[in-house]
Amino acid sequence: MGYQLSKTEAGQMFHNWTEKYEVFAPRLMEGEGCFSDTDIIRYGKVTSLDEIEWVKKSDYSFKEVLLAINETLFYFTEDQTTVPKGPEKDILIFLRACDLHAVRRLDEIYLRNGFEDFYYARVRERAKFILMGCSKTCESGFCVSMGTNQADNYDAYLKADGEQVYVDIKCSELEETVTAGTKAEVHPDYVTENKEKVTLPKNLSNESFTKEIWKEYGTRCIGCGRCNFVCPTCTCFTMQDIFYKDNPKVGERRRVWASCQVDGYTDMAGGHGFRQSQGDRMRFKVMHKIYDYEKRFGYPMCVGCGRCDDVCPEYISYANCVNRLAKEEEA
User: Fold this and answer.
1) Per-residue pLDDT tens for 158-191?
2) For labelling alongside 252, which of 10, 112, 166, 246 has CA 20 to 30 A away?
3) Cα(72)–Cα(256) distance, rounded to whole angstroms?
């Protein structure tokens, strides 16, 4: 149901949310960018609507709320293991339509991929999503091309417009927190055209895996992995066993974000490793997003947020790479 609230009424509603939920949203973090004099927009806990960055797209996605960057799976001693507790409170996550579509991709991988990941599932089942509208397109996004510019599977939609706040609530639990305001017809804002446009190739063959463009990109890519870390649908991780100094027979096993673009990621026991060149790694990433995943689940993995293009220090454009594949296929 839709409501029009004053800022004071919305503030009370948000306060009611924080009493029951941990609320995460994109925030402007001053001085916390790559350099001491740069800022970054990243997800963190918020206690008021004023802390949320409404206009600019976040540099990092919501992903780290559902998938911790560094997560302890269990603690171990000589004869027993202990699984750490999950979240103590339910979670609210503010995100945009493209990222809400990314949640579906994560669910496919962690919940409906032949088994259910225990650690992801226990966080996911306690999470609700607040949609943030997009009144205009971002510079690098191509969500319209990917069909992810609109979403209706939200628990609530919220728009702050001057002294008024508009809310559309689908979740009965959240609707109970609205204690004032007037009923109104509220529809999410969404973009209908992007500056960046992408054409997906539809008939990729095995020849696509041996094209010369991968060697070209391989000469430019430095294998830093930044594109993977900002992507809302990349899920690569590695395992680490940490042994405590005071007792080397006691420690913990951690799941830590990793990147398929980083040297050594595919190394195996015996010294063998797959995808030794940067071109092969670039090919794997791109083809996984637009070919392998779609072949398995019926839709592409990429949601068109454009963060990978924004963060690449070598100015490699994933969008341009996909368009080149489409043009070569057409030719």
Assistant:
1) 999 888 999 999 999 999 988 888 888 999 999 9
2) 112
3) 9
